[in-house]
Amino acid sequence: MGYDARVEPIDIAAVADDFDREVTATPAIDRFCSSSAWILAAASALMPPRAPFSFYSANGYFAAMRGVHAAGFPYIEPIELAWGLAAPLIGRDPAALASDVVAMLAARRDWQLAILAGLTADGPQRRALERVLPPRWERRRGTPTVRHVASLEGGVDGFLSRRSRELRKSLRKSLKAASAAGVTFESVRTTSAGDAAALYARIQGVEAASWKARDGVGISAGPMRTFYELMLPRLCLKGQQRTAFAQVDGRDVGYILGAVFENEYRGLQFSYDDEHATLGIGGLLQYHQIVELCGDGVARYDLGTEMDYKRRWAEEMMETETLVVVR
Q1: CA distance from start to end of the chain
Q2: CB neighbour list of residue 276: distance below 8 Å, 6 or more residues apart
Q3: Is residue 226 helix, strand or coil?
Q4: Is the dihedral of CA 324, 304, 224, 195 positive or negative?
Q5: Which of 43, 55, 182, 234 has the fewest CB within 10 Å, making it most exposed?
Q6: Nearest-angstrom CA–CA distance, 186 and 50
Q7: How far is CA 214 from CA 50, 208, 209, 273, 286, in A?
Q8: How far is Cα 156 from Cα 47, in angstroms, rounded to an integer?
Q9: What is the pLDDT, as a whole number, of residue 6?
């Protein structure tokens, strides 16, 4: 299919629901991290000032922004490039959409470098781009990004059967110790912006008492705090938010925050009070969340980007990379 002359600028925030429906139909991408809740929050909290560069055609969306490098050259990049997880080409027909996007880029003279992240190396978007990119445009490959994903097939028993003996033993020990210490768990689901603010206040109460806040690597301050503050109301309003708290004597001592999108759970953050570090609260919160997700029939658990502990909780990997095009 050739270039669609009806390609037109679009405000992703104004068409977020339709955009997300198209995300669910797009093959071979990180769907949650390409969705409106993630990319719009990242654009506001984590990315430098840029100009809108998103377009819509009959074949889907090109979700991007335009900036100017300190060296003076203009560039195009995805709306979220803090981690490079979001795919800018959103459409169920990657070949037709790639043709539209490349034709649109070729017709404009206001960019010199285009960063196309979130592409699986052998996925349909990458193959389609390779077919239609002009030979005179230089192509460079960025560093791959890995996510660890666990199947929830077979429910909790099925999930545990695919974990190591050591992990199962550690969970049993932690469950026993937590029960003896009076630890309880509360699941919280909210569907309004007002409730989202109260929920985030509870999360921040736990975060402030954690080692992450002490070491400055959590979400208690700075751009990361703002990122989740902006994203959480969107998740709540869409019914995607999944949060659980661990409590001792009615006081929050741990939390886990994630979201469900297209029958897949994306883990976002978890933390716990340092006073209860020996109880294995982090692992217990993950286990509690998995029990809830299996009860809801959710199929997969995306633990997010590379960390050693995630290898023990997951059996699959999803890898995407960035294609850099130089005009």
Answers
A1: 24
A2: 181, 183, 246, 248, 253, 254
A3: helix
A4: positive
A5: 182
A6: 41
A7: 32, 8, 8, 11, 22
A8: 38
A9: 59
CA distance 20 to 240: 12
Nearest alpha carbon to residue 63 among 44, 92, 40: 40
Per the DSSP assignment, residues forming a β-bridge with 267 are 258
- Give phi and psi for 263, each to the nearest 5: 65, 25
Distances (CA, A) of 191 to 18, 85, 186: 20, 26, 17
One-letter identity of residue 326: V
What are the Cα distances from residue 57, in Å, to 23, 86, 183?
14, 19, 53
Which tokens sit at 136? 């005179």
Below-50 pLDDT ranges, the chain: 1-5
Structural tokens at position 103: 């034709």
With 0-12 / 13-18 / 19 or more C-beta atoms within 10 angstroms meaning exposed / middle / buried, residue 126 is buried
